Amino acid sequence: MLTGRTAVITGGAQGIGLAIATRFAANSARIVIGDLDEAKAKEAAASLNADAIGVGCDVASDSDVVALLEATAAAFGPVNVMVNNAGITRDATMRKMTEQQFDDVITVHLRGCWNGTRRAAGIMRDSGGGSIINMSSISGKVGFVGQTNYSAAKAGIVGLSKAAAKEVAHLGVRVNVIQPGLIRTAMTEAMPAHVWEQKLAEVPMGRAGEPDEIASVALFYASDLSSYMTGTVSEVTGGRYM
Ligand SMILES: NC(=O)c1ccc[n+]([C@@H]2O[C@H](COP(=O)([O-])OP(=O)(O)OC[C@H]3O[C@@H](n4cnc5c(N)ncnc54)[C@H](O)[C@@H]3O)[C@@H](O)[C@H]2O)c1
């Protein structure tokens, strides 16, 4: 479904990002994994059965994102699919959250996503179009206790993506958003067991999602199957908070 296309996935060294890279590779895309952890990004790229490279990149840094897209162009040509997936959590109730924890989460998610969206769109507009996929969270729709920083950033990604989608739609660039629910990755495995069980009880389908179930939705948005979709938000939550 992605033959001849070059896809960049930020935060792709593990978890949901790696599942997306793997699924895209299985659909014949050329893959660039950008991650804060350069060694792990290279390792992940080497593990894919595809043309793939790993690049060290902090999405919060505009110059890093520019360098990531330059490395992409040098290896495989201009980016056709950009997945802004890199993320962190710094959970704490408002009473205890530090300004640093607030700023770190806003910077990585919101500014990181803005950097990736505008830099990729700038390239795609010159090359005839492309697909940008931004990773939000159901936390941005409903708000979670202990996540005033994360819920704000993830809600912000929806607004950012819709505004960007309107700016570049006439250039053939589509921008869409995925809101995962409870997905089994390192990020969620760090949760205490009783919190995991509480969250699981809220899922109508009665189970957590697997990273590959986010990857299949990303593949849909990356491919021509979604050619008339832009500015949309897909909840991939097993029905939680529908
Ligand atoms: N796991 C879930 O249940 C869930 C639910 C909703 C949304 N999400 C979102 O999905 C995305 C992926 O989450 P995950 O569960 O795979 O997390 P993860 O912690 O397993 O992986 C995140 C990756 O992002 C990288 N990263 C962190 N900061 C970075 C930066 N500044 N620049 C570049 N790379 C950076 C990390 O090194 C890591 O490889 C995140 O945006 C997360 O908020 C996850």
From TrEMBL:
Which residues does UniProt call coiled coil?
Answer: none
Family recorded in the similarity comment: Belongs to the short-chain dehydrogenases/reductases (SDR) family.
Q: What is its EC number?
A: 1.1.1.100
GO MF, one annotated term: 3-oxoacyl-[acyl-carrier-protein] reductase (NADPH) activity
- Residues forming the Ketoreductase domain are 5-186
Keyword Nuclease, does the record have it?
A: no
User: Protein name, please?
Assistant: 3-oxoacyl-ACP reductase FabG
Q: Which GO terms describe its biological process?
A: fatty acid elongation
Q: Report the NCBIfam families cross-referenced here.
A: PRK05653.1-3
Listed A to Z, the keywords are: Oxidoreductase
